[in-house]
Specification:
Elements: H1 11-14, H2 18-59, E1 69-71, E2 76-77, H3 79-111, H4 114-129, H5 132-151, H6 160-184, H7 188-196, H8 201-212, H9 214-230, H10 233-238, E3 245-246, H11 258-266, H12 269-273, H13 278-307
Antiparallel strand pairs: 1-2, 1-3
Helix pairs in contact: 2-13, 3-6, 3-9, 4-6, 5-6, 6-9, 7-8, 9-13, 11-13
Length: about 300
């Protein structure tokens, strides 16, 4: 019996349905346009900053960039005042957010039952939905008098410590969520192997899970500190020094951060335009803030690439 001849497959048959092919091309074009738009927006922001920043840098007296404080309307644009204030507030925020956020992540990932995780994680993430202006008033009305001033009698009503604690509370859910996702991505085989050799739960968590998830934990820390540096309203309300600030490293007193400096000066844009280089100084601070977060993210990316482990 002769074999039945099989139909020959042409190149057109391998191309698939034309409508599906057109749909896939359209989706690819739309996604490429979305990616290109985000890049274009970022480039436009940078270009807008560069123009006014160059105007400021080319006209400002260099001595005013290293003076006694940040008072733009008086012609004093002391960089170290606002950079130091941002670092101090962010440091206080990280002292609050890292242990609480990491502790919550460890519990949710390693200890909580499925039922407890179902209601604990959404409850924790509710903090991320609280407006920052509300947390700013909370820091001013409760954290400052009931926490900071009770522990440190010399603290003032407006202080960088109160603002830092408020920012830390705001950052906790971000730190916890990213850290918990990183630890849950660690394969269960590593936990089972550790348990199999007699390790306790805490030993497995500290010596196996956390080291295996260190790249994700570092990413969580960098995202959290970038969020803390970029926070505006909590610092604007609780740290004081809205009109300007002398250089200070005392977290128990008022201080000025980069974001709060921009917010306080931009509150009256018409007046700012008439005060020498005050308006241009807003763009200069914005560029400083951009470079600050860019360096942080580049350093974090390099570190994560070096310590990342693939399973």
């Amino acid at each position: 019996m002769l074999p039945v001849a099989q139909p020959r497959i042409s190149l057109a048959d391998l191309r698939g349905d034309r409508r599906r092919t057109r749909t896939e091309k359209l989706v690819r074009i739309l996604l490429f346009a979305a990616a290109l738009t985000s890049v274009a927006i970022s480039a436009a922001i940078i270009l807008s900053l560069l123009g006014q920043t160059w105007t400021f840098v080319s006209q400002v007296e260099l001595s005013s960039l290293w003076s006694d404080g940040w008072f733009p309307r008086r012609g004093q644009y002391d960089i170290k005042t606002i950079v130091t204030g941002s670092i101090l507030v962010s440091a206080v925020a990280m002292v609050v957010a890292v242990p609480l956020g990491l502790g919550a992540a460890v519990y949710l990932s390693e200890y909580a039952s499925q039922r407890a995780r179902k209601w604990l994680k959404p409850t924790l993430e509710i903090l991320a939905g609280i407006p920052s202006v509300v947390l700013g008033f909370f820091a001013l009305a409760f954290i400052s008098p009931q926490v900071v001033q009770r522990i440190f009698s010399e603290a003032t009503a407006f202080s960088m410590a109160a603002a830092g604690i408020g920012v830390g509370i705001l950052v906790i859910p971000l730190m916890a969520t990213i850290s918990e996702d990183a630890m849950r991505s660690v394969p269960d085989a590593l936990r089972e192997a550790s348990t199999g050799v007699g390790a306790r739960k805490i030993t497995t968590t500290v010596k196996v899970v956390i080291p295996a998830a260190v790249s994700g934990l570092v990413a969580a820390f960098i995202v959290a500190i970038s969020r803390a540096i970029g926070e505006t309203m909590v610092v604007f309300i609780a740290a004081g020094a809205t009109g300007g600030s002398l250089f200070s490293t005392d977290v128990l007193g008022p201080g000025q951060t980069m974001t709060a400096a921009m917010a306080s000066q931009a509150a009256g844009t018409d007046q700012v335009r008439g005060e020498a280089l005050t308006f241009q100084s807003l763009f200069f601070v914005g560029m400083l803030l951009f470079l600050f977060t860019l360096v942080l993210n580049l350093a974090a990316d390099r570190f994560v690439r070096r310590v990342r482990q693939a399973y």
